[in-house]
Write a structure and sequence with these properties.
With about 210 residues, the chain is mostly helical. About 45% of the residues lie in helices and about 5% in strands. The protein has one domain: Intergrase catalytic core (hpI Integrase, Chain A, Orthogonal Bundle). It has helices at about 10-15, 35-40, 50-60, 65, 100-115, 135-140, 150-160, 165-170, 180-185, 190-205, and strands at about 75, 80, 95-100.
Length: about 210
């Protein structure tokens, strides 16, 4: 099966991005200052792969839950990732709630029109988006970074440009915060606090801030 890529956008992507000024070492992650330009190139067309990358950037989730996002997991402006799609040992993970910005909701709306199954990103109709589709797209347009690296882009943006408390910033990335006893007493996932910063991130990425 061919890769879901709009070939006409690759030249546009290279032209808009040019030579990336901000480069990280060791970790193949895009500097947060370069993300808006890349995001803009993704908006030039609406293939499922490009839509998936846009949602990945906006939400900060890992690639597995993103690829497996299903219509039954979305309730209004909330995406509830089932425990089995979260990173961690079996029976040791829980579901994770992701607040969705208006931009993210628009992406899901577009994806539903293109997808061939109840997964939002299913080009074949037989399952979710292929595991390597997003990475192959990025390589095709000449990027050395990887999809997972956008989590680092988001985390660094939070640390360098916002007043997000450590616990909130780490929870945005679904990282475990604190020891076992502390977590037992802390019964919050900071959903509304996370929503504020995710909306700000969406505004930044889309050039609205």
């Amino acid at each position: 099966m061919g890769l879901d890529v709009d070939l006409q956008t690759t030249t546009k992507a290279r032209a808009l991005l040019g030579k990336q000024l901000h480069k990280t070492q060791n970790l193949p992650a895009m500097d947060w200052r370069d993300v808006p330009d890349f995001y803009k190139t993704l908006c030039e067309a609406s293939t499922l792969t490009q839509l998936a990358l846009r949602l990945l950037i906006l939400t900060g989730v890992r690639t597995r839950p993103l690829r497996h996002i299903h219509k039954d997991q979305v309730e209004g402006d909330l995406w509830i990732i089932p425990a089995e799609n979260m990173k961690g040992k079996r029976d040791a993970t829980t579901e994770f709630r992701v607040p969705l910005s208006s931009e993210a909701l628009e992406i899901l709306k577009q994806a539903r029109l293109l997808s061939r199954s109840d997964f939002f990103f299913s080009a074949s109709g037989r399952g979710p988006l292929g595991e390597g589709n997003m990475l192959q797209y990025m390589k095709r347009i000449g990027l050395e970074t990887c999809p997972h690296g956008f989590r680092s882009s988001l985390r660094n943006w939070l640390a360098e440009t916002t007043d997000a408390p450590y616990e909130v910033a780490e929870t945005i990335l679904s990282h475990t915060v604190g020891g076992k006893v502390e977590r037992a007493y802390r019964r919050t996932d900071y959903l509304e606090q996370r929503r504020v910063y995710m909306d700000k991130w969406a505004a930044y990425v889309t050039g609205q801030s």
